[in-house]
Amino acid sequence: MEKIAENLYYFQFLPYTDRMDYISAICNELSYVTAVEKLLNVEVPEKARYIRTIFAELQRINSHLLWLGTGALDLGALTVFLYAFREREKIMDIIEGNAGFRLTTAFLRIGGVHYDLAEGTLDVIKAFIRDFPNRLKEYHQLLTRNRIWLRRTKDIGVISKEDVFNYGLTGPVARGSGVAYDIRKIEPYAAYDEVDFDVPVGEVGDVYDRYLVRMEEMVQSLRIIEQCVAKLEKMPKSAPYLNKDHPAVIPPKEDVFMALEDMVKSFRLVVHGENAPPGEVYSSGENPRGELGFYIFSMGGSKPYRLRIRSGALYNLSIFPKLIEGGTIADAIALLGSIDPVVGETDR
Amino acid sequence: MPWMNLATRERIKTVFKDLHIQADEKGVRLEVPKSKLLDFLKHLKEREGYRHFIDFTCIDFPEHPHRFQGVYILYNPDEKERVIVKTWAEGGNLPSLEKLWACARWAEREAYDMFGVTFEGHENLRRMFMWEGYPYFPLRKDFPLGGIPEVELPSLTEVLEGRTEPPSHDYEVMHTKVATLEDLERTEKARLKKKGSACPQLGTLTSRYTRNYMVSF
Lengths: 348, 217
Fold this sequence. Notes:
The complex is a heterodimer. By secondary structure, chain A is mainly alpha-helical.
């Protein structure tokens, strides 16, 4: 994928980024778009920032539900799988109504989002926010104090704080071991500095802690979505969702068809690409899997000279050989579920 | 964005004299010569507290006399700052960071697989993503995007009805190397033999996930 990026313009590479961690596609796109916007110095309008945050958090809930379903399935709890997928359908309906795709959307653009929010999205999201905590309570009832679950997951695969630094772990795997490493708080992007949320941190670092960290993250995601929805309701309907004035941003389709300057600009950008200043930038975003970082080295021109994708799943997986030494096969399955790798991001 | 602050930069500059520092609001990049790399990273890790390993990668500059530049990204969890360290791979190899950070093994293996940069002191320097015996290094600038067309891969029409002149449809016969079953078996045997002694049950694992991940490291 990195080789493909060296031959494409920055906006053309966008659909490739969301095929990496295909479960939470918008989070990937958000990291990439933030990195490119840092390189090109593009300002994102307020409405777009809130829309991006809402969808990133919805995808985070989506991804954690998938983790819960498949992790529990691997360990034998089959009902949770079906319940989690039922919730995922509701989220994917919301995403589909806005972006057109369920899984690998190409919803974000450099400088904003592709479409404005569809009619009635905010009401559907509010209904979802009202409904979801009851579901989470169901899952907690099923698993958290379950004797079998506790015996399968407590004290398995303990990761110490030194291991987190040594092995480059990020995301819920690191937070389960007590390292409060959350890019959303350290380097806020896309409206995360304007919403209140807590970062759950575990104590022991075993599989059970990582499970609890991810469940709690879902609750915090709901909190973020609630605040963003409240802010979006107050914004005027005609607020811009794309920063059209910047020379590197392609204007939206209605304007391209109607106004002349936008048509010229769109033509110039699509054919010749944006002119990026020479320099390098490393910016990362908090994926549900870990930290997804983009290191872009540009020598001017419109194609990156080197685009490196720092995938959280690959480094999170590197601790797996060390942890299963001497363990049983059942432990290996529980551990792999809790590390939550996605091969698309691991192999890129 | 929290990058290395000025006080730390000055402090490091007094200890390591031949260090190039580039700092702007997009990041802080420190360039060291290769001979000082291990000491510098050790100093950063132990004395300055940049303990968290974020990434390691290589950039290919074909016109530069030392062709590859290694880029290390580190993070300080106490001060919450990042730094980028760059070094030129003189002679096409770099010292291995295995002793300092354990996951550098995987990052260096990937760099070897994609660029051909060797690492001194790496205990398992082998191809990671491509199969054993693949002769090229894909992410170099002289490797074309579609691969080097070497293998004859006829289309189904040609297999069934023979090659015609002019060709039956718009199709290139020569194709980039594709992993054959022998290649995959050879790769699997080579990887498993190393860890076979540790986990003798590997061949009979029932979980598909675990087996695939076992093979691929």
